[in-house]
């Protein structure tokens, strides 16, 4: 079975978005039943440094981000199921300078991507930790964030220099079967990207410039995939293999892009670029195969 899925942003005049809860409800909440039904879904925060991506995804005390809210709904939905049992595992990784690090086990060094027998791309050797509640996931996330590559830049004092990806895997079994057979696996990717600005804008030199080039390689590949997928004449060849980020996230997946822009006039060019990408992404139709 194949299903077409497109969700356009609602009419901005029709609703108010004042906090992370509103952002979650308008953008991400609808994905949760898909994941518990065995589909993959991705939410990524896109935009220049300091525009609020980490604030949206992770949140702050008293202002929980998309991650907490998505996990709360995910666990709630699983608890309410009468005919299924679920097992949830999580992995947390960063892509820094086109290298993958396990943030829950940083001693494991740099990890490689591999295709499994079904053709889906996996991170070889990444730790998968069982989680029974949002608190357990968030505790591990906080631990993992201490390992994340974060440095001050001219544009943000606690700038995330890597793309951070939280993978939540939901394995579903049917309770009513005599043999407890695994039926479906859904995966939710929650992604806090590094800043999308051109390196020159953050007045970075040396190491930060090199990072900028690598960050931009992944983001450029992401932008190219968005361009190719949104081509009015139908998608041409999609270069998912051009970067670690697009290899990992590419393929069959319902995807939400949360675009971040700054109100500052000095950020006009970045804001415009972000909106152009967001507009293109809005027109992508994905075919999700079951
Ligand atoms: N909606 C908001 N309300 C209040 N404060 C915010 C909001 N968005 C962002 N901030 C604050 O702005 C600062 C920069 O935000 P944040 O670190 O989330 O940016 P970022 O886009 O993740 O940047 P980078 O790409 O450098 O990691 C933080 O101190 C954050 O708390």
TrEMBL record:
Stored PANTHER family: CENTROMERE PROTEIN E, KINESIN-LIKE PROTEIN KIF19 ISOFORM X1
Gene: LOC129924510
Organism per entry: Biomphalaria glabrata (Bloodfluke planorb)
Protein name: Kinesin-like protein
Major subcellular location class: cytoplasm
Family: Belongs to the TRAFAC class myosin-kinesin ATPase superfamily. Kinesin family.
Keyword Cytoplasm applies: yes
Keyword list, A-Z: ATP-binding, Coiled coil, Cytoplasm, Cytoskeleton, Microtubule, Motor protein, Nucleotide-binding
GO molecular function: ATP binding; microtubule binding; microtubule motor activity
